[in-house]
Structures are given as C-alpha cells and as structure tokens.
Amino acid sequence: MILAINIGTGSWAVAAGLCWWLWPEVADRSGVAERLSFAAQLAAGPALVLFVLLCSCFRLFDTERAEDPFAGAESHAWKINQRVLSNTLEQASIFIPALFALATRIDAAKLKALPIAVTLWCTGRLLFWAGYRQSVVWRAPGFEWTFNTSLVVLAWYAVTLF
Questions:
Q1: Could you tell me which of 63, 61, 49, 44 has the C-alpha nearest to residue 129?
Q2: pLDDT of 87 higher than 80
Q3: Are 95 and 153 in contact (CB under 8 A)?
Q4: φ, ψ for residue 58 (rounded to 5)?
Q5: Which of 41, 46, 109, 124 has the highest CB neighbour number within 10 Å of its CB?
Q6: Local confidence band at 152 (pLDDT 50, 70, 90 cut-offs)
Q7: Residue 63: pLDDT band by 50, 70, 90 thresholds?
Q8: pTM of the prediction?
Q9: DSSP state of 25
C-alpha cells in the first residue's frame, strides 16, 4: 500500500508541475461574478465524472438477480462501481466548494490553477476507479491525486485569507 501511495503522490506532483508549466494562461475574470461563473463551468468536469459513475451503477449492466436491491445479488464489479461513486460524491463535496471559494480569491495571474485543479481531480477519480477494479491497493494512486488536489485548493484558499 505504501508503494501505491508513493506512486500516487509522486505522479501527482509530476503531473501538477507539468500542467502548471504547459497550461496556457486563462483570460482574466476580474469580478467575483465572472470568477464564480468560470468555476461553475469548470464544475461540470466533476459532474461528468459523477454522471459516468452513476451510469455504471445502473442495474441494467449487472446480473439479472441484481434488479432486486434487497437480494444481495450484485456482482463484484457493480459493488466496486457503487463504492467508487459514493467516494467520489464524498470527495466532490470537499473539492467543489473549495474550488468556488478559491475562484473568488485567487490572484488573476494564477487563474489557470482552477482548470488545472479540475483536470487533476477528475483524472484522480478515474485513476481511483481503474485502480480499484484491479486491486484494493491500486486505488491509492487515484485517491492521492484527488486528495492532493483538494488539499492544495483548500490550502491555497486558506493562505488568501491572511
């Protein structure tokens, strides 16, 4: 597990650095309303990830007996999808408000941090899902991507308060 966590943290740091270096500048949004509108548009990324995960949990894609939610007949794959959906919803409840909060306070020259954060967070969720389907241990890299992105956004917001 420690190896998987380290792989997640290291690969996230490399990806975040490359994104910061390669991502084009974002047009200035001077007013709070413009920045909140920008954040709302970016929040469609996590919403899309949640939508795909929700669709993966349609019982139509599982065993016939899984139609009855009280029968306990869901496949292992469906249970993983459901847990990933639940965890992603939990993670989104932290990330999305933090994204909106940071959007109101971030320096105009650093607005590209918002789409970068959304990209890293969504990629982390997809890595979490793919890793979970391989092994419980390999969900760790994707979790690290999600956690680190949320941590940086929250910390950046906190720093702007002082």
A1: 49
A2: yes
A3: yes
A4: -60, 130
A5: 124
A6: very high
A7: confident
A8: 0.94
A9: P
